[in-house]
TrEMBL record:
The lineage of its organism: Bacteria, Bacillati, Bacillota, Bacilli, Bacillales. InterPro entries: Cupin_2, RmlC-like_jellyroll, RmlC_Cupin_sf. It comes from Sporolactobacillus kofuensis. Residues 26-92 form the Cupin type-2 domain. SUPFAM superfamilies: RmlC-like cupins. This is Cupin domain-containing protein. It holds the Pfam family Cupin_2.
């Protein structure tokens, strides 16, 4: 078991963990801050808000996300993020197919 803790809420990006198959990042966004449209390369991406509220846009669809919700993207799927309030987000990039995605 490894305990991983987000240390710095002022840094936009902080790598929490990385191995050959996945990278886990902590993003700290200030209200109104945006990350323009981009993709995660060949990795599948899961975005999990843990504090605040963000607007997540992908494939022409925008969703208001708060803690308790998440978004999963296929490899190379374009997406953008905007913070509606000061927010912390955990981003998981997985280089291997994880099978079907199921909600709660």
């Amino acid at each position: 078991m490894q305990l991983l803790t987000c240390q710095n809420r002022t840094t936009l990006k902080e790598r929490l963990y990385q191995d050959d198959f996945q990278t886990i990042m902590h993003l700290s966004l200030q209200k109104g801050q945006e990350i323009p449209e981009h993709h995660g390369g060949d990795a599948e991406v899961t975005v999990v808000p843990v504090r605040g509220a963000i607007v997540f846009t992908a494939s022409g669809q925008s969703e208001h996300l708060v803690p308790g919700q998440l978004v999963h993207l296929n490899a190379k799927e374009l997406h953008a993020v905007r913070a509606e309030e000061d927010s912390d987000v955990v981003l998981i990039k997985s280089a291997r197919a994880t099978g079907s995605v199921r909600g709660c």
